[in-house]
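Weekly puzzle thread! Below is a chain. First person to post its structure in token form gets bragging rights.
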Amino acid sequence: MGRVIFETERLVVREWAESDGDRVFDIYRRWEVARWLGAEPQVMTDREASYPKISVPMLGLASEFSYDFMRYVWAGQGTDVRVHKVPGTGHFLAEENPDAVLAELTAFFG
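Winning reply:
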């Protein structure tokens, strides 16, 4: 069970736990629940949809060695994930290729 964030006599708000997925899917796959959610309600069609996703743009900068792994790991974490390879880097991207890091950050943040 996740860490308790807020608690009253009748309510406990806690962090998301992996084990919550089945229960969330069971609830949100039902039209009688989903119809009240948002301007264009949709029922949840599979358990994977029960995992929370980050809904703001995400930028991941990766070294030449970690790029494939980072792209794979981050791909399912959000709705707008961008992973870019910083050439000529290992562990210290900003120190090893500051111009490329600056260019990626400038392009991302505008």
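Puzzle host: Confirmed. Bonus trivia for everyone else. Helices lie at 21-28, 31-34, 67-75, 93-96, 98-109.
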